[in-house]
Amino acid sequence: MARALSPRRLWLTTAAAWFVALLIFFPVLWMILTSFKTEPSAVAMPPQFLSADWTLENYAEVWARSDYPRFFWNSVVIAVGSTLLGLVIAIPSAWAMAFVPGRKTKDLLMWMLSTKMMPAVAVMIPLYLIFQRLGLMDTKIGLVLVLMLMNLPIIIWMLYTYFKEIPGEILEASRMDGATLWGEIIHVLTPMALPGIASTMLLNIILAWNEAFWTIVLTTTRAAPLSAFIASFSAPQGLFYAKLSAASAMAILPILILGWFSQKQLVRGLTFGAVK
Amino acid sequence: MGKIQLTRVRKSFGEVDVIPGIDLTIEDGEFVVFVGPSGCGKSTLLRLIAGLEDTTSGSIEIDGRDATNLPPAKRGLAMVFQSYALYPHMTVRRNIAFPLKMAGMDKAEQDRRVERAAKVLNLTNYLDRRPGQLSGGQRQRVAIGRAIVREPAAFLFDEPLSNLDAALRVGMRQEISELHQSLKTTMIYVTHDQVEAMTMADKIVVLNAGRIEQVGAPLDLYNHPKNLFVAGFIGSPRMNFIEGPEAAKHNAHTIGIRPEHIAVGEGPWEGVVGLSEHLGSDSFLKVAVEGIGPLTVRAPGEVNAHHGDRIRLAPAGKIHRFDTNGLAL
User: TM segments (chain A) (predicted)?
Assistant: First the structure.
């Protein structure tokens, strides 16, 4: 039952929620506004919230100076590829952990999660050398692999949580009905956990899309995704805030649109099991 | 065909022996009920037969073929679960057809069998609904439908009626019995409800702490319980047990007399009525009998005895005699 709020409290909590939301959104808003300013007004002191001379020139120049479609395509391949590969590995793993747990399953889950607490830079040198020896530097497959590995603990954890909600008797029924292990996973488990799998997929696409450490360290030109595209605008000639903002806006726009259209699914998936 | 033979079947979970070793033969076409109190191992035994649990040792033969290490799908058995275990994302039609699809049966034959099962179970109008849109009884029928289309060697039922309300339970009980009469397929049915056991079974297997206490026809168990456990478990209300001088008169350590085998009126026993329940068809009395202790009495029809009344009672039926080990004499 929701608690009834007095009008005064309702007003206060609404105002607080708006304040927090604006605070979180402000950098994005500032970036978008800056992307339409000229370079001088972008760095003007004191900062100008609204500019006197709006322009689309930054976008035109960013578009002309770099091969945006290639970066975009690399981002799509890397984000979607690493997520799909992660799901293919994580679904059977989470199935095993949820339905035939061993004595060490909980420890294993904790250990997997603990790898996410390690700073990525700690494995940079070994991973860099491995990539170099295997010829994976600046390849999309290399990035798909590394981002899949980075996000695998999260994918498995999320799927494990969703799978735990599915009654074991239904899977047993499918076994009695003649389903093989794969039949059980494909025909029964996956469709039943589809909302959870969809939100896991969305969240991981977003995480992989926004990943900016490995994508910059392990790529130069061929496989570079949009995060590297942004970074390339902060390079040798110095910082051009307006162009950098335009590049950033172009890089985050696709994922922002995806997030906007899937927000219902994302929220539903993330609160799955928490709200009955 | 569905003869099932269990030989020294043992199951332990870690250090705990849930089933210390069971030998049992279930003949083809029999309706066998496993009955016993909670935690007696009856569901575990069913799951061992189904293949959903691995045996620790011993063997399970189905139709003369060793099935001990076969996966559930290869045993040719169908199971109906307590929770129905329907696939919520599939329509009733797809739920019932699922085992046929897994068996790789062609679509036309699948449809034919689903239609036939739906007709038998009165589900024809619900074939395109999802399980979430059905009542408890209808869901249970879908679960049964999914089991019968496979034409299995035997049906396994794991407390299938315990989620239904009382009225529906009686109806479904009769439906399952009728189904057994028409299909003549072996059925193994687990329940803790002895009314279900008595009314449905050809053969009852009474389990206690993972051991078989007695196997026999329902009335066999009622009339000739082998020991105190079976005597107390079969029959409702449970049998009265009397020890001491009254038992010694019958050369026994303990005597048992069923509540329906005690007559109210004249007789050697005198006591005061504690609780009295009048159902119209029967009257149930709890009577504190001097020198014996509390006895439960079930008298047919209306009996004019109420709380605090002094009444006389007489044994009016079989007196069961047991030795110091609780075994029938």
Answer: 12-33, 71-96, 108-129, 141-160, 181-206, 212-233, 240-261
